[in-house]
Request: fold
Amino acid sequence: MGMALSWGASALAATGDGGLADPNINYVGRWDKSNSATYRSYWNGSYLSTKFTGTTVKVKLAEKTTFMAIVDGVAETYWDATGTFNLTPTPLANGTHTLKIIARHEKTELPFQGLVLDAGASTVRPDTLPLVEFIGDSITSGVLTQEQAVTDYAWLTGERLGVDHTQISYPGITLTNGYHHKDSPMPGMESLYFKLWQANRCPDVACTANPGWNFANYTAKLVVVNLGSNDNFTAVPSRVPPATFQETYTNFLKNIRAKYPNANIFALRTFNGFYQTETQAAVNARLAAGDARVHYVDTTGWIDSSDLPDTLHPDDGGHVKITNRLLPILLPYLGKVTLNDSKFSYDNTANWPSGWQNGAYQNDNHWSSVANASYQVPFSGTQVTLYGGQAPAHGIAAVSIDNGAETFVDTYSAARKDNVPLWSSPVLTAGNHTLKVRNTGLKNASATGTFVVGDRVDITDGGVNLLSNAGFEDGLRGWSTGSQSGTVSTATTRPNSGSSHLVHSGGTAGYWAYTSQILTGLANGSYTVKAWVRGTAGHQLYVKGFGGSPVSVTSVASDVYTQLTISNINVTNGSAEIGFWTSDGSGTGWLHVDDMTFYKQ
Reply:
């Protein structure tokens, strides 16, 4: 049961033929390739992906198995399939198509023997993507969700990150060796994680015959650990003592680091809070040992009892909530920054109503059916990817970079889908760019409307303004305010740019006022805040709640806009509050603010 590739098979394989050693087939997860006739997957959520030309595709399977296939984004589950199995009983339109074949359950294995394509057709290499590895138990395996491994938070987060992803998880598994589920003796993840086979393959409690996994097969960029629930209350012979759990977790993080020297590792508080103190202490121990790329993620409040049908396992909605909270935490560590639709610049807010949309990024979006209505997203980076909704009433958008040629993007779909990648720019010269999305007013013949949405963009290798409504074009939306004997408002007289700006004003001696915005899910590191201001002297631009002492800069009297700047703000706790504070004894002081920016240096 070795892990070496069969070099004979590689030598005989032709690029693009769909054979096992076809380099255009991407094997994600733990696959055994030692048998040149059958490649076999282990652990739920393992998959293969490729693109192919032609109109049909079939998969060859060595024995009966159950799997999900996703062809051109349309998923179908096949039960007890075997032999040469047709994935396209209704032929596709001639062209290039996408394919994923996934092991859905914790005991499912894919005994893959290759693809069968049309005569003259070939596979096409999919994009090379970073890999995120999720380590866990039944929760990370999707128990109680509709489609299990492909509807749990690990799969959903991986797909929405736009990465390759693995799920090294098994129901009932503990972290700690010597303690196991009452119905399923097995070693803890502290041992089994480093093995090829999942737990049901173990011939004994020690799993002695389980081959070691060869970590040279792939390298994870991020690792997400969610363990401790089974250690707490289903373990035999007893609950794992807290001190034992903490020591085991610390060593587990250390051993993962030995396999992935450069990965960022995230230790999640279990969603029910089991071993919260010990998990955080294990992370702190690794930080104290000099491992700066280990992070504790406090999941308090991510889900509630309504999301837990059996008090332990999240349902489908609970996994979506977890994904929505985890996504912005992980994205910055992939060299990407995500911008929500609340931070886009719209040609006219009347053209782009906004509101709740389940499944959209952060469950909200903007939409418009007005021909030539548009929004822009200024950014600094090397590439941008546009995400949005597809639906029966959606039309055709025109997308461009830096006022260049437009590309038409059809956002129609017979069934609604949200937060899906609609378009990616080519790789751009590093620097400042502007994405523009315009509603053409056109639609697919099958569409019932011409709606275009604004939802999310991902920026690669760059920084963006992380503040919402930073130019106050949408009033005070996104900002918290307060005052005593003063007024916080917006006005259209003399903005620095656009059509609106922030105003602090008084009229009564001793008034005070503030306007602030709290950001969470920030990647730790150095940030800069800037703002254009005019008015009387003594108003403060401040940043606090970032893990260090508050910092501020004070305005000087000026009737023209001048820029205030605070640099090298060292965020250490993933959050920050940015705002303006006015305290005026005379009652006559006033402040105008416009075009604020807060970005990672």
Notes: The CA atoms of residues 60 and 173 lie 32 Å apart.
